[in-house]
Amino acid sequence: MLEDYLPSLVHFIIVALVAAAFLGLSSWVGVKRPTREKLSPYECGITPVGNARERFSVSFYLVGMLFILFDVEAVFLYPWAVVYRSLKWSGFIEMFIYIAILFTGYVYVWKKGALDWSR
Q: In angstroms, how far is CA 46 from the centroid of its own chain?
């Protein structure tokens, strides 16, 4: 069993050694001349204004989490679409139930006001 995985193990060890060597070499050879401009934060070419520790509304994080949740669930539609013809009616009914549950969750979030930016 070890002989099956030995080439992969050797490959990962070589990759880790080469990556460590490149990182070490670049930090050893690299020129370090920090200036105020180099150390300042860069944000889309605009000079930063205000404190970086500014508080954000909870709605911002809630909408972000909901986007990730519904986006990940939408990804499950792609494998289903690839094998749609071979699943026949049972696959269609299962995916209809899946989309109905997803839509119910979306309506619940919408009715609770989680997507309302004005509050």
A: 26
Looking at residue 29, its pLDDT comes to: 92
Calculate the CA 97 to chain-centre distance: 27
pTM, two decimals, is 0.50
Beta bridge pairs of residue 43: 46
b/e map 71-102, b = 16+ CB within 10 Å: eeeeeeeeeeeeeeeeeeeeeeeebeeeeeeb
| Separation in Å, CA 85 to CA 18, 81, 89, 92 | 47, 8, 9, 9
Secondary structure (3-state) at 46: strand
- CA of residue 108 relative to chain centroid, distance: 24
Angle, helices 58-75 vs 84-112, to 10°: value is: 170
